[in-house]
Design brief:
Layout (H helix, E strand, L loop, with lengths): L2 E7 L6 E7 L9 H19 L16 H4 L5 H11 L8 E6 L10 E3 L4 E11 L8 E11 L6 E7 L2 E7 L4 E6 L4 H11 L1 E5 L3 H12 L7 H15 L24 E5 L3 H14 L5 E7 L5 E9 L5 E7 H10 L6 E5 L3 H6 L2 H11 L27 H14 L1 H16 L6 H10 L4 H5 L17 H11 L17 H5 L26 E4 L36
Antiparallel strand pairs: 1-2, 3-10, 4-5, 5-6, 6-9, 7-8, 7-10, 11-12, 11-15, 12-13, 13-14, 15-16
Helix pairs in contact: 6-7, 10-15, 11-12, 12-13
Length: 563
C-alpha cells in the first residue's frame, strides 16, 4: 500500500509543494497524534497550495490557511527543518515601518505600510485628555486589512523615547492603543512633532517563537550552544569553521613571544560565546575578544586584558602573568576559546616603546572595562553599519527599554557617551533624544559622531578590549607620526587585526606556529578545534582619522577606501 510523501522545496519563489506516492521498504511508525495531524493538515495544505489568493484573482477569498502558519502542527521531524530554514535569530529584530503622526496637526497624517500578515495597514495618532492631566494622552489608531490567510497575525512594538509597548493583531479591522497620559510636556511635544514609532515583527508569531528557539542556545554552555553559534556565524557571516587536526593546543615556547604581540580570541559557547556571535555579526570581526603580551625588565611574560573577570564578577582591565592567563584559557575558560597569536613585524617591534607601554598598562590596571563607548566603534555611518532589520530607530528603542529596566546600566552603556557627543551633562536618554531633535539633528547622526580617546567618563578613560591594546600601541609609538589624528576607540577588533603591523614572512614565524596543521596560517593559532579566519589580516596601513566613517554590512563587510 502506497503512502503520500510531502516534499517542500525552498526556492527563490515561495515554497512549492510537490506530492508523490512511494512504497516504503520498511514499516513507518507514527504516533496517533502525528497521524491525526497529518490526516487533518494534508488537505489543508493542498487547499492553501491551489486555492487562489486575492492578489491573483479579483474578488477571490483569501485562503483559510498558509503553509507556514500550520507547519508547527506537523510532526517535528518534518516541520522543524523547514522552520529552521525559514527563520533565524535575526527574525527577533523588529523592523521600523514608520512613525504615526497626530491627525489634527498634519495634512498627510496617515502612515501606510505592508505587514507580514495584513498587507494593507495605516495608523495615526489622536490627542485627547480623558485623564484630565496637564498634557492629556492619546490614542493610536491602527487599521488593518488584506490578511494573506485566516490564521496569520502581526506583532508590533510601539515606542516613544519614554515608553515601549507591544501588541498582536489577529482580526482585520481598526484597532486602538491607548496612552492614558503622556509623561509630561517632553513626551507630549515629542509625539506632537515626531509621532509614535511603529516596529513590525516581520516573522510573525510563529517565526518569532522559532527565532527565540535559535537565539536561546547561543548563550547556553552546552554542545548545543556551541553548534548553534557556529551555525549562526556560518549562516550570517559566511564563516567556515573547518576542523583542525589534533593537537588543538600548541606546545608554545614562551621565549618566542614578545611585547606587543596581539592575541585574538573567539569564544563559541556560553554567555560570552552568544554575545560575541552577535558582536561579530554586526561588526564583521572574526574574533570577539583580544589581549596583548608584555615583557617586563626581567624578561617575564605578562598579558594585558580589558575584560578580565575578577573575583567579584566584575569585568576589569588586568595585567596577569602569562602562566596564570594561559592556564585559565586551557583549563578554566568554559567558552571553548579559539586563540591566535599575531606576532608584530620586526620593524614594528623595533618601534614599540616598552617603557611607555608598561606605564600605560599600569595606569589602567584595575579600572572597569570600557562599556561606555563599546557600541560606538561599530556605528560609523547613518545606514552602512546596520545589518537588516537593524537601524537607528531600533537601536533607540532598545536603549529606551534598557533605560526603563536598568537605568544605571543604560547610563553606563551609552548615556554618558551620548552626552559627550552633545556637549551636555547628566541628560537621560529621553532628554538626549529631545535635545538632539531641538538642535535640528537626528539620533542616527548623533550615533555616528566619532569617539575621542581623551574623553574622561565618570570612572575614567573607557577602553574596550581592543581599544586598550590600540591605546597601548599608540602610547608605545606604533601610530607615529599620525598618532594625534587616530582615535583608537573607533576601532573594532577587525579594524585592529587588518592593521599592517604584523609579521608577513611565514619563515620568521616561530617553528611551533601552526605545528601539525595541514594549512599554514599567516599567524599562529595556539588553541582551538576550528581553524580561525581573519579576513583582511595585516593589509591596511594606518592613515589619519582611520575607521571613523566605515561601513560594515554583511556578508562581505566591505569598507570604503580611507574611511
Amino acid at each position: 500500500m502506497g503512502i503520500w510523501i510531502l516534499i517542500l522545496k525552498r526556492q527563490r519563489s515561495p515554497i512549492h509543494l510537490v506530492w508523490r506516492t512511494n512504497k516504503p521498504t520498511k514499516p513507518i511508525m507514527a504516533s496517533s497524534s502525528s497521524l491525526l495531524f497529518e490526516s487533518i493538515l494534508t488537505p489543508l495544505l493542498l487547499l492553501t497550495t491551489f486555492f487562489p489568493s486575492s492578489s491573483s484573482l479579483a474578488g477571490a477569498v483569501n485562503p483559510p490557511f498558509h503553509p507556514r502558519d500550520v507547519l508547527p502542527l506537523l510532526p517535528r521531524q518534518l516541520s522543524w527543518p523547514i522552520l529552521n530554514s525559514l527563520h533565524s535569530a535575526v527574525d527577533l529584530l523588529p523592523t521600523f515601518v514608520g512613525a504615526a503622526s497626530v491627525s489634527a496637526l498634519s495634512s498627510n497624517h496617515t502612515l501606510d505600510w505592508k505587514g507580514a500578515c495584513f498587507y494593507e495597514n495605516s495608523a495615526w495618532v489622536e490627542f485627547h485628555n480623558k485623564s484630565g492631566s496637564e498634557f492629556g494622552g492619546g490614542t493610536l489608531h491602527i487599521k488593518m486589512s488584506k490578511a494573506h490567510s485566516w490564521t496569520c497575525m502581526d506583532i508590533y512594538v510601539f515606542a516613544t523615547p519614554y515608553r515601549v509597548t507591544w501588541d498582536y493583531y489577529f482580526l482585520a479591522r481598526e484597532h486602538t492603543l491607548e496612552f492614558e497620559a503622556w509623561e509630561g510636556k517632553a513626551e507630549f511635544e515629542y509625539v506632537k512633532q515626531k509621532g509614535v514609532s511603529i516596529f513590525l515583527m516581520q516573522a510573525g508569531m510563529l517565526g518569532t517563537l522559532q527565532a527565540l528557539w535559535e537565539v536561546f542556545p547561543l548563550f547556553t554552555n552546552t554542545g548545543w550552544g556551541e553548534n548553534s553559534n557556529l551555525a549562526f556565524l556560518k549562516k550570517h557571516m559566511g564563516a567556515t569553521f573547518e576542523q583542525r587536526p589534533q593537537p588543538w593546543v600548541t606546545n608554545i615556547t614562551v621565549d618566542d613571544i614578545h611585547s606587543g604581540d596581539f592575541l585574538a580570541i573567539s569564544k563559541i559557547r556560553g554567555r560570552w560565546g552568544g554575545f560575541e556571535s552577535l558582536e561579530k555579526w554586526v561588526t564583521g570581526s572574526y574574533a570577539g575578544h583580544t589581549a596583548v603580551c608584555l615583557r617586563d625588565s626581567e624578561g617575564k611574560l605578562w598579558v594585558g586584558e580589558s575584560g578580565h573577570e575578577n573575583e567579584e564578577g566584575e569585568d576589569i582591565i588586568a595585567v596577569l602573568p602569562w602562566d596564570e592567563w594561559w592556564d585559565f584559557e586551557l583549563n578554566k575558560d568554559d567558552s571553548n576559546p579559539q586563540i591566535a597569536l599575531l606576532p608584530l613585524h620586526p620593524d614594528i617591534r623595533a618601534k614599540f616603546n616598552e617603557t611607555a607601554a608598561w606605564e600605560y598598562a599600569r595606569s589602567m590596571d584595575g579600572k572597569p572595562y570600557g562599556y561606555h563607548n563599546m557600541i560606538f566603534s561599530w556605528i560609523d555611518t547613518i545606514e552602512g553599519n546596520y545589518p537588516p532589520p537593524l537601524d537607528a530607530h531600533l537601536v533607540a528603542s532598545v536603549m529606551t527599554v534598557w533605560n526603563q529596566m536598568q537605568p544605571a546600566y543604560a547610563a553606563n552603556l551609552w548615556n554618558e557617551a551620548l552626552n559627550k557627543r552633545l556637549g551636555t551633562q547628566g541628560l537621560d536618554l529621553p532628554n538626549i533624544l529631545v535635545e538632539t531633535e531641538k538642535r535640528g539633528s537626528s539620533f542616527d547622526e548623533l550615533l555616528t559622531i566619532p569617539e575621542q580617546d581623551d574623553w574622561l567618563y565618570s570612572d575614567g578613560k573607557s577602553t574596550s578590549c581592543v581599544a586598550f591594546i590600540l591605546e597601548m600601541y599608540k602610547e608605545a609609538g606604533l601610530f607615529d607620526p599620525i598618532s594625534s589624528s587616530i582615535e583608537v576607540t573607533e576601532f573594532t577588533i577587525k579594524d585592529a587585526y587588518i592593521l599592517k603591523f604584523f609579521e608577513d614572512d611565514p619563515n620568521r614565524l616561530p617553528k611551533w606556529c601552526n605545528d601539525g596543521d595541514t594549512v599554514k596560517l599567516p599567524f599562529c593559532q595556539i588553541r582551538g578545534k576550528y581553524r580561525m579566519e581573519l579576513p583582511g589580516y595585516n593589509t591596511v596601513e594606518p592613515y589619519p582619522h582611520m575607521n571613523e566613517r566605515c561601513p560594515s554590512l554583511p556578508p562581505k563587510y566591505s569598507r570604503s577606501l580611507n574611511c
